[in-house]
Amino acid sequence: MERRFRTIQGGAAKQNTESFFDYTFLITVFFLLGFGLIMIYSSSSYKANLTFGDSSYYLKKQLLATAIGLVAMFIVSRIPYHAWEKLAIPGLIVSIILIFMVLTPLGYEANGARRWLNLGISLQPAEVAKLGIILFMSYMVCSVGRGIRKPKTLIVLLLPVIFVFLIVWKITENMSSAIIIMGIAVAIIFVASPDYRKFVILALGVIALAALLVYMLKQNQDASSLGFRFQRILAWLNPEAYASGKGFQTLQALYAIGSGGIFGKGLGESMQKLGFLPEAQNDMIFSIICEELGLFGAMAVIMLFLLLIWRCMIIANNAPDLFGALLVVGVMSHFAIQVILNIAVCTNTIPNTGISLPFISYGGSSVVFLLIEVGLVLNVARSIRLKEL
User: Fold this and answer.
1) Helix or strand (DSSP H, E) at 4
2) For position 3, what pLDDT does the model report?
3) Most exposed of 24, 40, 244, 317 (fewest Cβ within 10 Å)?
4) Where are the beta strands (DSSP E) in 62-119?
5) What angle do CA 348, 352, 355 make, to 5 degrees?
6) Which residues are registered as beta bridge partners of 387?
């Protein structure tokens, strides 16, 4: 006889119930990880051979980080997610301390930016802060309950987030991670708040201010008098005019995307990775995907990320309680914001800012903490009960 199931929200598991496990979500993560390792080797082998005499140098480091991340993911997926409530505030405090430690001798510079810590292993505190914000905001929103309707409560909730935003931006000079941190916090509050009008007004205000800023910069013809972030905006508006400076990476990325056509040149056949496109294995790996696998490959990657985000939505909608739902929403918003920003930068839809493509770009700290977040989602999913009808 055919068996049918429905989800049970809230409460303990009852008789004739079984746990839910989202195999689609996990398989999608594994596929993205495997594809990412292939693309990291393809995009970095030339540079790695020239720099280190080992074409698989970046691949080996990413494999190690991925293995550590998978172990962490498994451990986190087995710990009941409510245990993380006790670590929400301490976790945020630890992430803040780690950010300030970048200013100490333990901090070091790479690729022109001081964003990493040498703790025996390389650690990027901004990645810790993203996870810390997810835990902190999920816990705090549940704690204030209906108080989230009050503007004063919203301000109190956002003050720690704004502080983390500012120190990530100023201390590590990592504007992209700061934007993601703020985006995660706003997404969690947005989902928990019954009044969406204030968010629509806020979004329209931010867009209007950004448009005004771009217009004012466009009227300023003396780029040398502006800071490097404003110069990036000018390079975004007219990359050809800054081809030898701020617009160089953007132009090379666009050349890679344009030359790929519909089906690409073939895996490993990219020309732009041969010393033309800076950070081909990091921020600009999507451009190499477009060049080697074409529009078809790019759309396949985008569809995988959409599937990942959709499965997060399913898990969040069926989570046993608000804390579990908000944890998944925080992780989902992290994935979504980072994917959108990376692809937008590669296609010159927004000004260039260093940001990786989740699970695919090279970066040890990034993949480890992304997999820890995957573990949180899997744990919430396991708490969903299926009852036989």
Assistant:
1) none
2) 40
3) 244
4) 107-110, 113-118
5) 110
6) 6, 17
Are residues 187 and 139 in contact, defined by beta-carbon separation less than 8 angstroms?
Answer: no
Four-residue CA torsion sign, 129, 134, 135, 136: positive
Question: What contacts 368, CB < 8 A, 6 or more positions away?
Answer: 65, 68, 69, 72, 127
- With b for 16 or more beta-carbon neighbours within 10 A and e for fewer, the 1-24 pattern comes to eeeeeeebeeeeeeeebeebebee
Pairing label, strands 385-388, 17-19: antiparallel
For residues 191, 325, 123, 35, the Cα torsion angle rounded to the nearest 10 degrees is: -100
Q: How far apart are CA 18 and CA 6, in angstroms?
A: 10
Provide the Cα torsion 170, 118, 89, 325; round to 10°: 90
Question: pLDDT digit string (tens) for 283-333?
Answer: 899 999 999 999 999 999 999 999 999 999 999 999 999 999 999 999 999
Between 241 and 271, residue with greater pLDDT: 271
Instruction: Name the residue with tokens 């914000």.
Output: 133
What pLDDT score does 72 carry? 95
**Over the stretch 42-100, which tens digit does the pLDDT of each residue have?**
999 999 999 898 899 999 999 999 999 999 999 999 999 899 988 999 999 999 999 99
SS3 at position 274 = coil
Distance between CA atoms of 1 and 303, rounded to whole angstroms?
36
Tracing tokens 């990775």 back to the chain, one arrives at 273
Look up residue 295 and give its two tokens: 């529009």
* C-beta atoms surrounding 195 within 10 Å: 9
* CA–CA–CA angle 57, 62, 65 (5° rounding): 135
Cα–Cα dist 6/2, whole Å = 14
Q: What is the pLDDT of residue 5?
A: 40
Q: Which string of DSSP letters, residue by residue, matches 337-375?
A: HHHHHHHHHHTTSS-----PPTTTSS-HHHHHHHHHHHH
**Cα Rg for the chain, rounded, in angstroms?**
22
Residue 172's pLDDT is what?
86
Rounded to whole angstroms, the Cα distance separating 28 from 305 reads 8
pLDDT at 193: 81
